[in-house]
Amino acid sequence: MRKAIIENGIVTNVIEVSDRAEDQPDWARVLPDAADAGPGWVFDGKAFAPPPPPEPDRNAMSLSFGQLLIGLVAERWITEAEGEAWLGGTPPAAALALVAGLPAAQRFPARVRIMRPSVVLRLDPLVRGLAQAEGKTEADLDRFFVTYGAA
Question: Which H helix or E strand runs over 111?
Fold first, then answer.
């Protein structure tokens, strides 16, 4: 029989004990039966649940320009016509508006990054600003970068 050792609601270890209660040490009898649970699983006092997925490493998330455009069009965050125009050197109006609203010293570097980026970083302030302007959440951006980073 598998028994779970729990610390602060998290399974820290699973041990094997005899199926017969009388053959188990007293301290092991009070441990919950682990069933399929393993280290890292969550225990609420009644049931086990798998560990939550790890937080994405946003510092490592990036897309190529092509992946970005494919994703933006596929998700309908921009139209296909806007994607085609961006391929030709004309970014969407929302991107141009964001750049125009920046302080003068930041506009040229922002235009360079928007016109035809070789790498689009998840944590780039322009990415976050455009996403916020379109009502996208951090979770939306994470999903987008994970999905289209693999494309």
Answer: helix 104-115
